Amino acid sequence: MTIDALTQHILADFSGSHVQIIANGDRFFFIKGEDKFPFATIVTGDNDYDNLSNLNREGFFRLNMGVGREVFRELFPEEEATYDFTAQHTLFPHPMYHKLFWISIINPAAYEPLRQFLTSAWEKSVRKPGW
């Protein structure tokens, strides 16, 4: 799946959402009227504070979703588990924002399996815009 295809799926599925694309190609998805706290992001490279996924590899990107406590705990019940933050097509806790209940996946192969997590993230944002 490409970044553009993933972006189009998200915008089509979540009514009133919009995306901000910054100069390096990273994308931030917001609910209508909200531009401070995204419900999902796509990052396209490493930076000084987030480099555990080795995203500087050609063609690599990471989708991140703020799913909330309940969904996060269902997916990752063991707090002390270790994860490979460089693995493709595999959900893992966000390398930096896992304590805020964000999950990630590098180069997802398909959109449909992610829809439920994006829905959780979108619904959480709709309930608590600007938290």
Summarize the structure in short:
The protein has 131 residues and is an alpha+beta fold.
Discrete helix count: 3
Mean pLDDT across all amino acids: 94
User: Quick one: how many beta strands?
Assistant: 6
Order of helices and strands: HEEEEHEEH
Total of domains: 1
Largest sheet: 6 strands, antiparallel
The termini sit apart by 31 Å
Cα Rg: 14 Å
Measured by DSSP, the beta-strand proportion falls in 15-25%
Low-confidence stretches: none
Net shape:
globular
Strand adjacency order, main sheet: 1-2-3-4-6-5
The structure class reads alpha+beta
Percent range for helical residues?
10-25%
Oligomer: single chain
Pfam families: DUF6194 (PF19694)
Organism: Siphonobacter aquaeclarae
Domain DUF6194: 1-128
Protein name: DUF6194 domain-containing protein
Descriptive notes:
InterPro entries: DUF6194. Residues 1-128 form the DUF6194 domain. This is DUF6194 domain-containing protein. The protein is α+β, with helices and mostly antiparallel strands and 131 residues long. It has one domain. 24% of the residues lie in helices and 18% in strands. The chain has a 6-stranded antiparallel β-sheet, with helices on one face. Strand 5 and strand 6 form a beta hairpin.
